[in-house]
Automatic annotation (TrEMBL):
Pathway: Amino-acid biosynthesis; L-proline biosynthesis; L-proline from L-glutamate 5-semialdehyde: step 1/1. This is Pyrroline-5-carboxylate reductase. GO terms for biological process: L-proline biosynthetic process. Residues 3-96 form the Pyrroline-5-carboxylate reductase catalytic N-terminal domain. It comes from Amycolatopsis cihanbeyliensis. Catalyzes the reduction of 1-pyrroline-5-carboxylate (PCA) to L-proline. Residues 159-263 form the Pyrroline-5-carboxylate reductase dimerisation domain. One of its GO terms (cellular component) is cytoplasm. It is an enzyme of class 1 (oxidoreductase).
Amino acid sequence: MTTIAVLGAGKIGEALLGGLLNGGRRAEELMFTERHEERAAELTQRYGVPAVTVPEAAKRAEVLVVAVKPQDIEPVLDELAPLIGPGSLVVSLCAGLPTALYERRLPEGTPVVRVMPNTPMVVGEAMSVISPGRHATADQLTLVEDLLSCVGSVVRVPEAQQDAVTALSGSGPAYFFFLVEAMIDAGILLGLPRAVAEKLIIQSAVGAATMLSDTGQHPVTLREAVTSPGGTTINAIRELERHGVRAALLAAIEAARDRSVELGKAQQDG
């Protein structure tokens, strides 16, 4: 039995707890930390998992999953450092924070695995990308992969690629939500009721994603199958290209990558 503590029970932390339970982990293997007593009580009632303090988690858990906001990491590390056990594995779900930060602040030799998840974890469809720190073993990386597979798909990359991952899949759901929002507005502009426009666009997005996933075909191939010569779709594509939508997406994702680098650098310099 591997004892797991989730430090920070926000949306991602709660989603991971629920996913671990649904994946067969027992409540007695799990614990979590939460600053707000009312929410802690609510989560304990919902999942049967006890709320503990950070020092208690450091003493009892073999795997410590850090799921706090990046700006809240310092007090958590201050509490963990003097109490974390020599065999404990630290799994960081904090955007932009490098494994080197944890390795510098925690006892020498502490194994750390960096993870970039995304919010579809709340519906069991996360894209989680993992990278080992200097002291993490192959077995520990496999353990983290197994834990996260309860809430979606998992990919391994070198840590040097994590800022790009953060920009692409970490922030990625927001880009899709933004596009869906704009397309729903377009439907309303064309005279459709909002409820109808929402159903049309959301189901189209689900269907398109399923086609990409299940057929394995390149998105260009799938797009061309919808784009008849002289038809409606090619006229729409022409307008998207004329307004620089492709270039805007490239620039947006580069900007997100740059911000991820800044967040990590701020912590390293601090």
